[in-house]
Structure formats: structure tokens, C-alpha cells
Amino acid sequence: MYIINNKRQIERIKDMVTVRKNMDTYEVFYHDPTTGELWKSFFPRGYRKHQGPKLLRPEPLPENLELQLEICLNSPDDSDAIGLGIECSVKPEKWEEIIEILDKNRKKYLRSHLSTFIKHLGILHPMDSLQEIELHPDDLELDEEKLTALKKKAKRIKLKRFFRI
């Protein structure tokens, strides 16, 4: 699903046709004539800037967040967990919902992918993550107390999954 390796992205893009570019947001959409799929190349942490890792993935993602997590955290390729984690890291307003879904379904996910996703989500260092995407907790409905609680819950999820609880 997600391609995060630059060489693999270039190889994949060579066979596709550029549909449209948005140089304000550094998003490029491609059409794969062999499969008929639409792909999106973008910098989730670099909205209006050329910054952070570049991701390539099929467009659109399933609308259901639970389904996105299930697909990416059970994929044989850990780049799916990394890619979804990076993409979700810039949506701190969804962190609470994500943590609830992870806690509810933790036994369904591959243990290594769950840890990888949580690491790239940025919830383990929430203030640093918010600073990277140039947001302040006051801009959201997340105060420091709530961020600390989410961080603790994410750590518990990792531990519960590690010990298969």
C-alpha cells in the first residue's frame, strides 16, 4: 500500500502517468494504466513545504480509520505501518480515536507493526510531534494532561500487545 523507499517510488512512478500536480502542497497524483489505480505522492509533514518523508500510496484510502489500521498493521510489509503512522502523525485531532481503536483491536494486529505504527504516530513524544507540524496544543482540543494520558495509553497498548494480554 505505502511505498516509503525513494528508489521503489521512482521505479513505481516510471510506469505511471502524471494526472495532476499541486506545487503549493507538493502533491502529485498518478494513474497506473496497468491496474487503473490512482496514486498519490506527497509530504504529509511538509504541507506547503518540502519537508519530512515523501510517501506514495494508492488514492483514496478507505474512509474507515479502523479498516485503514487493520490493512496496514496486518500487512506483510512494515512500510505500511510506517506510512500510515507518518500520515496520521499530522492529524493530532484523531489521535484519541486512533488510540481507542488500537486498544480495542490490539490482539488483531501484528505486534511489530503495532509498535512501529505507534512510534511513527508521534504520540510517545506528543509535544515534539506537535512542534514539528507547527501546532500548539491550544490550537487543538488537546491539553497537556490529555496528551500525557494518550501517551501513557499508547505505552500500555504496546506492553499489553507484547505480553499478549
Intertermini distance: 29 Å
- Please compute the radius of gyration using only Cα atoms: 16 Å
Number of domains: 2
Question: Which residues sit in consecutive blocks of at least 5 with pLDDT less than 50?
Answer: none
- Structural class based on helices, strands and sheet pairing: alpha+beta
Count of alpha and pi helical runs:
7
In total, how many beta strands? Answer: 4
Instruction: Give the biggest beta sheet.
Output: 4 strands, antiparallel
Sketch the topology as an H/E string, one letter per element: HEEEEHHHHHH
Q: What would you call the shape? A: globular
Portion of residues in helices?
40-55%
Characterize the structure shown.
- This protein is an alpha+beta fold.
- It has 2 domains: 1-60, no CATH class; 62-165, no CATH class.
- Helices cover 47% and strands 13% of the residues.
- The chain has 7 helices and 4 strands.
- Strands 1-2-3-4 form a 4-stranded antiparallel beta sheet, with helices on one face.
- α2 packs antiparallel against α3 and α5 (111-121) runs antiparallel to α7 (144-162).
- The radius of gyration is 16 Å and the shape is globular.
- The model has no long low-confidence stretch (mean pLDDT 89).
